[in-house]
Amino acid sequence: MRILFITLAVAALLAACTEAPNDPRGNIPPETYLSLSPDGDLRTTTSRQHIHWWGDDPDGFIAGYLISFDNAEWTFTTRNDSVFALSLSGSDTTYSFYVRAVDDQGNGVWDSDGPYGAEPFTDSNGNASYDQGEPFIDLGLADPTPADLRYPIQNSPPVVRFSQGSDVPETTFTVATFSWIGTDLDGDETIREYQYALNDTLSPAAWKSLPRSTTFITLHAGDGLREGNNVFYLRAVDIAGSLSRIARMPDTSGTWYVKEPKTELLIVDDYGPADASAAFYNSIADTLMGGRFAGADIFDIKTGASSTARGKYLPPYTNPTFIETLKLFKYVLWYTDNDPTIDVAQVALPEYQRSGGKILYTAAFPESAIDPRGGITDYAPIDSLSPNPILFVPSGTQAEAAAESPGYPTLVRDNNGVPVAFIRDMYRKINARNLYRFQESTRWTGQPVVAVRSGDSRFILFGIPLHRFNGSGKVGELIHLIFRNEFGVQ
Questions:
Q1: What are the backbone dihedrals phi and psi of residue 148, each rounded to the nearest 5 degrees, phi first?
Q2: Whole-number Cα distances in Å, 318 to 32, 175, 343, 428
Q3: Are 65 and 54 in contact (CB under 8 A)?
Q4: Closest CA to 54 of 70, 75, 72, 77
Q5: CA distance 471 to 400
Q6: Which residue in 418, 366, 362 sits closest to 389, CA to CA?
Q7: So what's the pLDDT on residue 3?
Q8: How far is CA 338 from CA 110, 362, 367, 423, 475, in A?
Q9: What is the pLDDT of residue 374?
Q10: What fold is seen in the domain 265-486?
Q11: Backbone CA torsion sign across 464, 470, 471, 474
Q12: What residues have CB less than 8 Å from 384, skipping those under 6 apart?
């Protein structure tokens, strides 16, 4: 019996190995699946979509996916997700997304005209066509019923805000700069343009358009800045025509005041101590050149300044705002204490001189002014300053016209008891000319140079505070002669 049982089992096994199936099963295409948005609600959503998908092949492996937004043109990817920026063509748009999983059971031959386009390959020689031997991904069957999902896109209006630290000062001349940042949940590239208006938002004609790439603008009188109170309004417009909320500068119900130049002379007040210096220079300007500059404008750049803060009337941008403000005037009289605002002068005064402006600058200089990396030498007609300052200039000290600059009156240190310090011998540039020297004294060596004129007579530098050297009452006469002889004012 045992022998009979073994014989029958072997026969059955041989029959099973040699008998072919009556109905062989072919390759089964994969199935594809799409996830919903994270909250499972696609009634409305934004134009930037992170879409996830996956596939399952019951008799093989997934080689990749074909994706499409029109169920006609397909793109192959091996990824299971991607972020898409769905362009807006109106206030609301609906997109349909399709994805087909593809298995790896291809025919081993590159297909150039399959139902979903050519199979992907590596264009090794860069000729934009498949060549024999170039590696390709051999795709098999694709899911005949793609997974699809509709994405109703609701347009989000853009947002615009002014850049931090760009607030316009409470008072300016007819130059003001504005800087802003625009964003949009649908993608910043959906911002079509910016629009701004001065003082009036009701009239459609009041709004001026700016390209999307413009986020910084400087306005002048020709752009509508007017004497008196002003407000700057800004908004963004996206490609669907949606408007942002209006941003306002100043950002409260207030305004900023704009002054139109009264004369061709600007007095830059870079002086901190509370004394009579402002009245001194104002009175000189009122009588200068027969009253031609009476009522000259004053630009206070020192009030509110500290070791960590700029003067409160200085605009946020030296370039271009402060430079363009100086260019409103032909002449600048800049006076300062022994802590001049050198960083602003370094940027502004060279450009102002190149534009044809003429400068009378009077100051005493601390240690920072002789920094070899740059300082007053960047903008004034000197190569260097003496590293050893005169720490005290006694009353009665005389400053005399240099031999190469005759005809200017002798200046005398006043005796009002206010100390004068940080006076340094100045070494002129090769094309400049010495203008004033101190008289000889046991307090210093020789006759230190305390005033220099540039070679083109556009910059007159005094290394002493002129209002402290009016003991002989000659500073007014000196400034008159400088404007006539050096600046050419008649």
A1: -145, 155
A2: 60, 12, 9, 27
A3: no
A4: 77
A5: 13
A6: 366
A7: 54
A8: 81, 10, 10, 9, 19
A9: 63
A10: Rossmann fold (3.40.50)
A11: positive
A12: 370, 377, 427
Say which residue the tokens 């979903």 belong to: 116
DSSP category for residue 167: P
Residue type, 289: M
Cα–Cα distances in angstroms (integers) from residue 47 to residues 44, 75, 160, 355, in the given order: 10, 20, 19, 49
Output the pLDDT for position 34.
93
* Domain 159-259 in this protein, CATH class: mainly beta
Pairing of strands 62-68, 256-259: unpaired
* 117, burial (CB in 10 Å: exposed 0-12, middle 13-18, buried 19+): middle
Q: Which tokens belong to 251?
A: 């950002």
Q: For the sheet with 159-162, list strands across it.
A: 159-162, 175-183, 216-220
* pLDDT at position 40: 45
* Per-residue confidence (pLDDT) for residue 252, from 0 to 100: 82
Q: Output DSSP code: residue 5.
A: H
Question: What ranges do the domains of the chain cover?
Answer: 28-154, 159-259, 265-486
SS (H, E, C) 408-435: CCCEECCCCCCCCCCECCEEECCCCEEE
pLDDT averaged over consecutive 10-residue blocks of the chain (490 residues)?
A: 52 51 74 73 65 92 93 92 75 84 89 86 85 87 92 86 95 98 88 96 95 97 96 94 94 92 97 92 96 96 91 96 98 93 94 97 79 76 91 94 95 89 92 96 94 97 96 96 95
Q: Where are the alpha helices (DSSP H) in 244-291?
A: 277-287
Quote the pTM value: 0.76
Alpha-carbon gap, residue 66 to 100, rounded angstroms: 5
Residue 342: count of CB within 10 angstroms of its CB: 21
User: Residue 384: helix, strand or coil by DSSP?
Assistant: strand
pLDDT of the residue at 87: 67
- Distance in angstroms (rounded) separating the CA atoms of residues 176 and 315: 8
CATH 3.40.630.30 assigned to 28-154: no
Q: In sequence order, which residues have a C-beta less than 8 Å from that of residue 63 and are 6 or more positions away?
A: 78, 102, 103, 104, 106, 137, 138, 139, 140
Domain pair 159-259 / 265-486, same fold: no
Polymer length in residues for the chain: 490
The torsion of the CA quartet 142, 143, 145, 149, rounded to 10 degrees, works out to: -100
